[in-house]
Amino acid sequence: MLLVVAACAGCDRGSGPEPAGEAPAPPPAVQSPVEQAPQPIAERRADPPPADPNAWLREVEKDPIAALKRLDPAALQPSRTRPSNDTVPQEPRPEYRPGPAVAKHNPETPLRGWPPVVGRPYPEIALIDQSGRVTSLSEFRGKVVLVELVGLTCPACHAFAGGNEPSVGHFRDITPQDGLGSIDSYAQRFGKLSLDHPDVVFVQLVLYGMDGQSPPSIADVQAWARHFGMDRYRNEVVFVGDARFINPETRRLIPGFHLIDRNGILRAVHSNDPRHDNLFTSLLPTLSELANTRERP
Q1: For the chain, how far is it from start to end, CA to CA, in angstroms?
Q2: ∠ at Cα 274 (119, 214), nearest 5°?
Q3: Cβ proximity of 117 and 253 under 8 Å
Q4: Are strands 236-240 and 200-208 parallel, antiparallel or unpaired?
Q5: What is the pLDDT of residues 201-258, one digit of tens each?
Q6: Position 208 in a domain
Q7: Bridge-partner residues for 171, per DSSP?
Q8: What is the CATH number of the domain that holds 202?
Q9: Is residue 2 part of a domain?
Q10: What is the pLDDT of residues 44-80, one digit of tens each?
Q11: DSSP at 242
């Protein structure tokens, strides 16, 4: 079994471990959103710890299955059932047709509990998603929810969405932050988990529109979702924020991530605020732990 794993380790795969003796280049510091009147944002992003060149060999000796997971984090995890393009005829997938909404969007109702606080229930948010349906976060109770706070003019948000990948390209001629990878790539690297995990719901909460000052339009959010391939079939949800979120506290949370457990409790927050959780060493490993724990906390 060890010989098989050792042979696989030599395969030329982008998701494989770094060569022994070479520490991975840390992600760059995240830049502030481009705004006409930016609020103060701490310019900081903690670098991940350097890779241990002997960790891979120890992992092989201890648990070959875990070693395979490190080669390809998505290879041995459960997967949503989706037809493979290699096994079925190439036919257009029908348009996503949302079911009846179970919540109402009331933009005039005061938003309680925002900004959210770690250890407390996440605010009850019901917003229009990219399909035009009003969706509530409470509909995902029982799953782990990763929420990304997005501004459409934020270069780091474009990079986290995959804007630096050649197959994706730039959205609305905005240049993503150079050198910053997608959040899914970082989830695989630091959490050993793909966001395609069946117990994970990935939510992008778009709070600022193309002017960097006001809420986004539905048309702009739908265009963003199409460009970056946010697929409602795969529990990838893009929310259209409204005026209730427009305030200095929200602005300081972008770019950022919120991690909600199966019971709707906020477990971690990452932003440019140095008091918040580190994305690489805290939030993403906790995401993996919560997703792979079937019992409710």
Answers
A1: 35
A2: 80
A3: no
A4: parallel
A5: 999 999 999 999 999 999 999 999 999 999 988 889 999 999 999 999 999 999 999 9
A6: yes
A7: 174
A8: 3.40.30.10
A9: no
A10: 344 455 555 555 455 556 665 555 555 544 444 444 4
A11: -
Burial-class residue 220 by CB neighbours within 10 Å (0-12, 13-18, 19+).
middle
| CA–CA gap between residue 225 and residue 131 (Å, rounded) | 10
Determine the residue type at 66.
Answer: A
Domain that holds residue 249: 126-291
Radius of gyration, alpha carbons of the chain: 20
Q: Please count the structural domains in the chain.
A: 1
Distance CA 38, CA 212 (A): 9
* Token pair for 142: 């029982």
Picking from 149, 170, 158, 169, the residue whose alpha carbon sits closest to that of residue 252 is 149
Cα–Cα distance measured from residue 180 to residue 253, given in angstroms and rounded to the nearest whole number? 18
Q: Look-up: residue for tokens 């009850």?
A: 124
